[in-house]
Design a protein that fits this description.
Elements (H helix, E strand, L loop, with lengths): L20 E4 L1 H15 L15 H9 L4 E4 L2 H9 L4 E4 L7 H11 L4 E6 L2 H13 L4 E7 L12 H12 L3 E8 L9 H24 L6 E4 L5 H4 L6 E2 L9 H6 L9 E12 L2 E4 L15 E2 L7 E5 L4 E4 L11 E6 L2 H5 L4 E6 L2 E7 L10
Parallel strand pairs: 1-15, 2-3, 3-4, 4-5, 5-6, 6-7, 7-8
Antiparallel strand pairs: 1-9, 9-10, 9-14, 10-13, 11-14, 12-13, 15-16
């Protein structure tokens, strides 16, 4: 670190910012988006997942840089993305129950946006078909392919070919291709990650070839997430949908050393108590930082030796040899291990430009409903 130059995450007017707060650094975000575009070889091959940030301002920032296609996980996310001006939005989640009607409403409310969704079940596809026919509308659907994660999707093979054939024939629906998310692949070693990615994608490529041989059209394949983004980007004939790259986090920073992205979001916390000679109690509980994984759930650049002792709803107690250097009320900055669920815990983000907190961005799509 250069002497007398504050670290990138420091906020000069931090006394004006309550804690805990989510901090976002747009200059670093923009650089990350430019790097994403460079890896993909252009904006046309990018369909970034917006579930990481859930902010309209982030959509508009990416639109400014030429990105027009986005991927979402909820109807609220899809609506917010369309309302922000996106031309093409994929809901990467099979609509069931009332969400079928909400999907129809979404397409009617935002006619300038091209929407698509996923299916992996014939009955669910028929519900969509009936709903869109009843409303005189049409929806593009992609077949969700299970390429090894075993979370959702249909296994490549004869059943997948038959389902695609039936969906393509359903009134009110258009078969738009395949979706293959390989979220189970996150090897630290790039060679191992590449080998596993190729093995997982080979059946998807065969499925595409078999569908075309059967006289069916496969307009696109949406493939991968963040860990396999650089691998799929080399194919040239798929859309890539990384998400975490925009903010990055301590987890991917440690696990994906080959991926050159900047941490562009942090957490501001303060010492609220000093329960022992080597302990600090921070206002960074479960409700401020994602807690679905073992510690470390947050990394403190100012305290590299900090170890979590207890973690509860509003408190995080850490042990550090430097505890004596801090007083109650002092600030610390933390880098979340997993940024996506951390963002969803905050109603708004404090925007830091040029080292100063200048405004707030609503994390609008953290809600399950936007307007619909």
């Amino acid at each position: 670190m250069t002497p007398n130059i504050p670290p990138w995450f420091t906020v000069a007017n931090v006394h004006e910012v309550p804690s805990p707060s989510l901090l976002v650094y747009p200059e670093r975000v923009e650089e990350n988006v430019r790097r994403m575009i460079a890896i993909a070889g252009g904006v046309t091959r990018l369909r970034p997942h917006m579930k990481t940030h859930k902010m309209a301002e982030m959509i508009r920032l990416q639109l400014k840089l030429g990105i027009t296609k986005f991927k979402c996980a909820t109807i609220a996310e899809a609506e917010m993305t369309a309302a922000s001006g996106a031309a093409d939005v994929l809901l990467a989640y099979q609509p069931v129950g009332p969400n079928v009607t909400r999907m129809v409403q979404l397409t009617r409310q935002y006619p300038k946006t091209q929407f698509a969704t996923l299916v992996d079940d014939e009955a669910a596809a028929r519900k969509l078909s009936e709903a869109f026919v009843a409303n005189g509308a049409r929806l593009t659907v992609l077949l969700d392919v299970d390429c090894g994660q075993h979370r959702c999707g249909i296994e490549p093979g004869p059943a997948a070919i038959e389902l695609y054939r039936r969906v393509a024939a359903m009134p009110g629906l258009s078969a738009g291709g395949l979706h293959a998310y390989d979220g189970h692949i996150h090897d630290q070693d790039l060679a191992a990650r590449t080998a596993n990615c190729e093995a997982a994608f080979a059946p998807v490529e065969k499925l595409k070839a078999d569908l075309i041989a059967a006289g069916l059209t496969v307009p696109t394949i949406v493939a991968g997430g963040t860990p396999t983004f650089p691998i799929h980007a080399k194919r040239g004939d798929v859309e890539c949908s990384p998400g975490t790259c925009v903010f990055w986090d301590a987890g991917y920073g440690a696990k994906m050393p080959d991926m050159d992205f900047l941490v562009a979001a942090a957490l501001l916390t303060r010492v609220v108590s000093k329960p022992g000679g080597n302990r600090l109690c921070l206002d960074l509980g479960h409700k401020a930082v994602a807690s679905e994984m073992p510690h470390p759930r947050v990394v403190f650049p100012q305290l590299p030796d900090a170890k979590a002792v207890t973690h509860s709803e509003e408190h995080l107690v850490v042990e550090t040899s430097r505890a004596g250097e801090f007083a109650v009320g002092d600030c610390l900055y933390g880098i979340p291990w997993h940024i996506c669920p951390t963002v969803a815990l905050h109603a708004a983000a404090v925007v830091v430009r040029g080292g100063h907190a200048v405004e707030r961005w609503s994390v609008a799509a953290r809600a399950r409903r936007f307007t619909l």
